[in-house]
């Protein structure tokens, strides 16, 4: 297809496509995929998109798979609805509030996007055994795509990950190991064992393709809003691949001539109990230290240290956005607020974005007439433990 | 739009559109909606569909809402993926096996289709309070669409309905009552209280529009297979609205000139612990008696008596299909068989269809070269109680 090279996000060293990569061999930082966008734009046009398939592979010219017919491992991921929220908007006095519902993906979360790309590339590159540390939803997605591709999936999750994640992985035939610790401890276990076991490490941003899948969120956002990006977007940030991916997509779309130089203000949303990006943003730091004693019901936000922290912080600042922490109580309350007015069962992470948006609206940082998009990264069905009896 | 009248499925009496209906005022049987298909076909063409929205309202000319812009209550339902199953197929020696994954609907099940139609029509007709007896997934869908429409939702479910269903309803702001009994007991409770409470009864086939939503399964099946229906389809049958709806859709599409007179063989799949249709089919009966001591882990199949039994039995027989019962053990085993080869986490009801299909393949009733579609009616995430520790 149109991949020209891979480039290190930190030191800029480049690598030839068609080989197996994890992090930059020079500096150990994440790699990005670069494309010949002029070539891509010859067949990938706004007009062509009107009749493309209703999944994220509609953007295949800017995705890394070389032989799509053979190697795309698809379960129908992406092209999720971006829905106006008229009843919530009326409550808040907002005319242009939207939720993008990633809960309608296969495996019930946005992680399907990254994993379809990573597993498709693993298949294309001849990799046979995959391993991943996960807060839960990445695990379920990897288990599903690995199964569909016929690859081994070795999954490491914290012991207190929601039951839904553990059960879905087992039913997809994955090897599941529960660790008494956080996702960082799971990552350390994968790192310790991968060489001896012959596993390919699919950790967030430690291979170059999950971010390529996630960036389709940005393409869809533009296409679904008729190529006019919103004023602000709220995105729950664990590892941050989606945020970084969208930022990359915006640049690619500008180069394709599809959008201008305007960017939405990006608000990273985290939990009060685990807010490394918020803390670093407020302190004016370029990198985020590991957050101590990380705890939150929003398991996807229980990521005390993200390798892509510096990329996120730069994107947030360049966009003129910010970083907001939300309490667990506020996010669980927000699930029901959104549910009873609009009928969407949000994941706590998505609900956190709604709560953060309301906070900034009240603080005057979001205008009532602005076009605002909230990302719901998964279905609440995967978080039953968070909800009480009444 | 194009509704001409409603007609009783049993006695043939007709009714004018635009009014509130439950069952036939003459004989108490379900009503069907009829359309001016010539008028519908002027704008609803195969060509027009190529650029329509990726949800079931793409077929709005053959759906009952008079004022779509005002009254459609949409959460992105329908246009779910119909996926080839190459790895399962290879195991079984089948070249053309597909699963339609209804788990990717809003609320994680096919019930979204019926409820978007029923709630949209309730909104259009000025109804304010809805009530429904449900085995679980219809409840979650009604709660969601009622919330989005701003209508009251009163929900009655058996006490042992999966937790996911109970929690999703509560988080959508519905009034939930758990009954020590079966869906038939829940239905009796709705019937007993609805007049005093001013509730509109949204029970399966007791209002005319859920079936209209469900019939879009048939339209999608045809469109996704490039207007050539499969040889056989396996559909899990509780109340049977989807089966009856598809049968209706096939006739409509023939009248639209989109397909010929060929019909797929329809196989109704039930649980051994609750198989009224299978029993009636095998006994050559036109109606199905209430199944005693109904029990199965597939909560959606725990429907001992369905008002549309006679319509289902007629469609199954006319199609040259059949009715098959599957044990709970077989369906739970099938979840993992499909999961580890294809990465889909099926509901037990969908897995039952897979198990039934394998049985008929081994019995020679399904040919290895036939094009076969299995309907997975929901995500396994809503049935965590069914899956063990191991």
Automatic annotation (TrEMBL), chains A, B:
Entry keyword set: Amino-acid biosynthesis, Lyase, Pyridoxal phosphate, Threonine biosynthesis
Keyword Amino-acid biosynthesis in annotation: yes
Pathway assigned to this chain's UniProt record: Amino-acid biosynthesis; L-threonine biosynthesis; L-threonine from L-aspartate: step 5/5
GO MF annotation list: L-serine ammonia-lyase activity; pyridoxal phosphate binding; threonine deaminase activity; threonine synthase activity
SUPFAM superfamilies assigned to the protein according to its UniProt record, in alphabetical order: Tryptophan synthase beta subunit-like PLP-dependent enzymes (SSF53686)
CC cofactor: pyridoxal 5'-phosphate
Transmembrane segments: none
Catalytic activity field: O-phospho-L-homoserine + H2O = L-threonine + phosphate
Record carries keyword Amino-acid biosynthesis: yes
Modified residues (N6-(pyridoxal phosphate)lysine): 111
E.C. designation(s): 4.2.3.1
GO biological process assignments: isoleucine biosynthetic process; L-serine catabolic process; L-threonine catabolic process; threonine biosynthetic process
Domain Tryptophan synthase beta chain-like PALP: 75-378
NCBIfam families, A to Z: PRK08197.1 (NF006050), thrC (TIGR00260)
Protein's UniProt name: Threonine synthase
């Amino acid at each position: 297809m149109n991949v020209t090279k891979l480039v290190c996000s930190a030191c800029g060293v480049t690598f030839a496509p068609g080989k197996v990569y994890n992090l930059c061999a020079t500096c150990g930082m994440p790699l990005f995929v670069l494309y010949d966008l002029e070539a891509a734009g010859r067949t990938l046009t706004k007009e062509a998109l009107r009749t493309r398939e209703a999944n994220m592979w509609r953007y295949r010219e800017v995705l890394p798979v070389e032989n799509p017919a053979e190697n795309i491992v698809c379960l129908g991921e992406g092209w999720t609805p971006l829905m106006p929220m008229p009843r919530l908007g009326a409550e808040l006095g907002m005319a242009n509030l939207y939720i993008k519902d990633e809960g309608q993906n296969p495996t019930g979360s946005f992680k399907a996007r990254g994993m379809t790309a990573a597993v498709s590339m693993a298949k294309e590159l001849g990799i046979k055994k995959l391993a991943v540390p996960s807060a839960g939803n990445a695990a379920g997605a990897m288990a599903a795509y690995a199964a569909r591709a016929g690859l081994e999936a070795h999954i490491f999750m914290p012991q207190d990950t929601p039951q839904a994640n553990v059960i879905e992985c087992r039913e997809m035939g994955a090897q599941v190991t529960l660790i008494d610790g956080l996702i960082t401890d799971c990552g350390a276990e994968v790192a310790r064992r991968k060489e001896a076991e012959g596993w390919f490490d699919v950790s967030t941003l430690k291979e170059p393709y999950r971010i390529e899948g996630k960036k389709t969120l940005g393409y869809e956002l533009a296409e679904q809003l008729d190529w006019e990006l919103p004023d602000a977007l709220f995105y729950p940030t664990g590892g941050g691949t989606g945020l970084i991916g969208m930022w990359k997509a915006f640049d690619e779309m500008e180069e394709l001539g599809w959008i201008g130089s305007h960017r939405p203000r990006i608000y990273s949303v985290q939990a009060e109990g685990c807010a490394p990006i918020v803390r670093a943003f407020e302190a004016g730091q370029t990198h985020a230290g590991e957050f101590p004693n990380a705890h939150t019901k929003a398991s996807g936000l229980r990521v005390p240290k993200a390798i892509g922290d510096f990329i996120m912080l730069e994107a947030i600042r360049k966009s003129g956005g910010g970083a907001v922490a939300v309490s667990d109580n506020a996010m669980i309350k927000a699930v029901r607020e959104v549910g009873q007015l609009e009928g969407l069962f949000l994941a706590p992470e998505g609900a956190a974005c709604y709560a953060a948006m309301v906070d900034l609206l009240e603080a005057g940082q979001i205008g009532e007439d602005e076009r605002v998009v909230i990302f719901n990264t998964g279905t609440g069905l995967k978080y039953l433990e968070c909800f009480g009896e009444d």
